[in-house]
Design brief:
The chain is an alpha/beta fold. The chain is built from 16 helices and six strands.
């Protein structure tokens, strides 16, 4: 793991705190500390960091660094160091703090993976502010003897790992994603011949770990294990049941289609119509997830469908175009074959947007 600390050079307390972290983290992670936006930008551009840890608030430089980090796939952690306390927010609020808040400060806090409070009072203030629900409390060993520097660092490293165990899909390598989709296809088809000669790439232990975490978060564990079994592979021994992660604001665990619409339908076409209606609602609210896609894929593969009747029914419900776009998403992500599709696939910008909703379901 590679960490970049960005702090106020003029703040002796922050400088002391960061220096202590540099000393105590050195043996556990690759760590660097910079106090110049120019240097931070250069560092982010020239080498990959997993986490940018920003110390302090109210500087446009922090917002610019955070924006660049997001663009490059570096995750942002923020320690306000007490600079979001109510008395500071009220001080010259209309002359200085409020315009800055509206322009960048609130957004920077909202988009951070986690905000680190250094005590219960600061945590309470951050909770009341409500800008980011992902708050951790880690006391500052520079200003209190109630925690040792080594324990403070251990807790911070635990938070960093939690950040890196969140939204793991966007951290996966291309070969890990390829392995994921092939395993899921093997699971829903139940037959290795449907892979048409494609083989699952060899994965590292960390890549397998990410696959298992993603499957757990998206309720795909049973499918991933089934795919491994269908392909005659050895199941990895990695246990991710105790892994801790952060989730987006407003996140709700995935509910399957069957859990929502039930399974009491007169015909398979009635069930599919109800399925497409439900998926349309999920897409509109941007809660469409991979589990829904795979459930639909399996439904299409396993049941006989009166295609002409379904097309007419979907057209009457004004869902035909949506269903065709959904077939395009299935073709891209689960590799559903054209011959199995009840309606022709459409690939356009709306299809791409649907794919983004699915793959970014856990994105913060």
């Amino acid at each position: 793991m590679r960490i970049l600390h960005f702090y106020h050079q003029e703040s002796d307390l922050q400088a002391h705190y960061v220096a202590l972290l540099m000393q105590t983290m050195a043996g556990s992670v690759e760590v660097q500390a910079l106090s110049s936006l120019t240097e931070v930008r250069k560092a982010l551009d020239t080498q990959h960091y997993d986490i940018l840890h920003i110390h302090g608030c109210w500087s446009i430089q922090y917002a610019k660094a955070a924006t660049q980090a997001h663009r490059l796939g570096t995750r942002v952690v923020i320690s306000p160091h007490g600079e979001l306390e109510p008395w500071i927010l009220k001080n010259r609020q209309w002359q200085e703090k409020m315009p800055k808040t509206l322009l960048y400060q609130r957004q920077t806090i909202q988009e951070a993976y986690v905000v680190i409070a250094m005590g219960s009072m600061e945590r309470e203030s951050l909770e009341k502010l409500g800008w980011n629900p992902r708050i951790e409390t880690i006391r500052n060993a520079v200003i209190t003897h109630s925690i040792t520097p080594s324990e403070m660092t251990r807790q911070l490293l635990t938070v960093y790992q939690k950040v890196m165990d969140s939204d793991v899909f966007n951290l996966m390598s291309q070969q890990a994603r390829e392995a994921l989709f092939l395993l899921l296809k093997a699971a829903v088809s139940g037959n290795p011949h449907w892979l048409q000669g494609q083989t699952v790439p060899q994965l590292t232990a960390e890549e397998w770990r990410q696959l298992l975490i993603y499957a757990r978060h998206e309720r795909l564990e049973h499918l991933l294990k089934r795919g491994i079994h269908v392909l005659g592979m050895k199941e990895p021994m990695t246990d991710v049941s105790q892994v801790q992660s952060y989730f987006p604001t407003g996140y709700h665990p995935v509910r399957t289609i069957t859990e929502t619409i039930g399974n009491k339908f007169a015909t398979e076409n009635d069930r599919l119509l109800a399925t497409f209606k439900y998926l349309h609602r999920l897409n509109t609210s941007e809660h469409l997830a991979m589990a829904h896609l795979l459930e639909l894929d399996r439904e299409i593969r396993e049941h006989d469908i009166d295609e002409e009747l379904l097309k007419d029914t979907l057209e009457d419900a004004r869902l035909l175009t949506f269903a065709s776009r959904l077939m395009g998403v299935l073709e891209s992500l689960t590799q559903l074959e054209e011959g199995l599709m009840p309606v022709p696939a459409i690939h356009d910008r709306q299809t791409e947007k649907m794919e983004d909703i699915i793959t970014n379901h856990l994105k913060i």
